[in-house]
Amino acid sequence: MEIYEIHGGVPLKGSVSISGSKNGALALMAGALLINGEVLLHNVPRIEDVETMMALLADLGVRFEWQGNSLWMETRSLSHASPNPERVNRMRASFYIFGPLLARLGYANMPHPGGCQIGARPVNFHIRGLRELGATIEESESLYRATASRLKGARIYLDMPSAGATQQLMTAAVLADGLTIIENAAMEPEVVNLANFLNAAGARIEGAGTSTIYIEGVTGLKPYVEFSVIPDRLEAGTFVLAGAITRGDITLEHIIPEHLHALFAKLRESGVEIEESEDSARIRARDPLQGVDIRTMPYPGFPTDLQQPMCAYLTMAQGASKVLETIYENRTQHVPELRKMGADIVAEGRTIFINGVKQLRGATVRATDLRGGAALVVAALAATGTTRIQEISHIDRGYENLEAKLQSLGAQIQRVYPYAVATPLGEASEA
């Protein structure tokens, strides 16, 4: 399998352009199933998760064509609502097509979802919400079978503000009969992006970005929609942390700084200098940087998807830090990998304790999941010597051209292919 080989200790410098949001693009692709026509999405990242969603929807009859980073979808040919279980099992976001398929075709046979093994991510909020919208759902060990001649508006309260459940139920309610109110809704930027996309298609959604969303059902949407995916705040956050841990000076372009305020607040508390403009931010970090305490929370709190890269950064910040993961109980698999690199870090349940060290060292480590892999990249960029990161397919799921972007900032990173002979960076290798 391919690996990343990183020779660390080089401060990152320069500018980098942030790609479209992975989570945002996947939500829009699922929402596009409500449209009987064509959709043109701009600023779509060409990453593995998007390709997986394309393959999943192509099995259902949807047609695609790439035009640079724009993705054309033809959804008139949607022929059935029984997704391939193997494809659904590869990615958690596959489950988000359940509601749109049910709303448009009147039935859906949805396999249980897959994704990174970071802890229990039950879909009971999704199922209960769809039932409250009038769906009849039967569950077996591997499948949810749902039917509804037409969904009916309902008042739905979410026990926790799940972004996935909010997006799922919001899209399903678009074609329901009557008014749907989602209370304790997720406020993530990706939820707002999806609502704006659906409204551009003729939906009637208000309140997205607040804890209460109102959806007045319509009988159909426009046959053509053109829309842009928001910038990826999680990719942006990863580059911010990479710049900070290497004591670099980088500028992120094509971002929405507001989406990063929780991260920026904690890094400023740690001693990082951050200058924000309308669509960019400059990150400068110099010693000494101080440890901080983090508690992951739904947006606008500190994002769970940046907890692991943040841990990597804190391993080289002076003093003690404590990180409490409140969303997923098993999002600590990066901890033993960081210890291999000399980090003074330990996990006790959902709490991670970190004492900053002066220097990390290169080691052979393994990416256990998407953001855990990103954490190892962040750590490796600051470590002495060479780090080899195995199973980088996890990282490829969510980052577009990661090594090329890092190389443009001066990082010494390369992708080593199977059977290649490992050589010092900058030299050729032969199979």
Mean pLDDT: 94
Radius of gyration: 22 Å
- Strand arrangement, major sheet: 21-22-1-23
Helix content: 25-40%
Using the coordinates above, name the CATH class of the largest domain: Alpha Beta
Give the CATH architecture of the largest domain. Answer: Alpha-beta prism
Say how many strands there are: 23
- Taken from the alpha-carbon principal axes, the silhouette is elongated
Low-confidence stretches: 115-121, 420-424, 426-431
User: What structural category do the secondary elements indicate?
Assistant: alpha+beta
Strand content: 15-25%
What's the total helix number? Answer: 14
Distance between the termini: 14 Å
* CATH fold description of the largest domain: UDP-n-acetylglucosamine1-carboxyvinyl-transferase, Chain
The biggest sheet, with number of strands, parallel, antiparallel or mixed sense and barrel status, is:
4 strands, mixed
- Assign the CATH superfamily of the largest domain: Enolpyruvate transferase domain
